[in-house]
Backbone:
């Protein structure tokens, strides 16, 4: 799925770095440029998932198998799988525009 999402976002002119783990994304040289992260819940440790996302210190688009029963973190958008790519692209664009950074369009980390 990581490659498919990377391809879809790159086709929309987003720069994408893909990682298997959140800690690898945080160590990336491009981390400071990132507007948001796309994270699949399947790649998170269930016990520490919320804390890991908060430590990420970037807005997160969390991909989940079913709607969460609890509220998400303020800077977390939740998308339910199977994922509609247009919803993902729209959410990334919204986060990019919310960042109010000139030239920020396209800086996306994808640690899924």
Residues:
């Amino acid at each position: 799925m990581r490659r498919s999402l990377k391809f879809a976002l790159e086709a929309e002119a987003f720069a994408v770095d893909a990682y298997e783990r959140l800690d690898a994304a945080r160590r990336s040289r491009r981390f400071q440029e990132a507007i948001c992260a796309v994270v699949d819940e399947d790649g998170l440790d269930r016990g520490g998932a919320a804390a890991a996302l908060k430590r990420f210190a970037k807005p997160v688009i969390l991909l989940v198998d079913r709607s969460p029963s609890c509220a998400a973190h303020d800077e977390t958008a939740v998308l339910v799988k199977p994922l509609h790519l247009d919803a993902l692209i729209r959410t990334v664009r919204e986060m990019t525009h919310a960042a109010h950074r000139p030239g920020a369009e396209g800086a996306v980390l994808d640690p899924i």
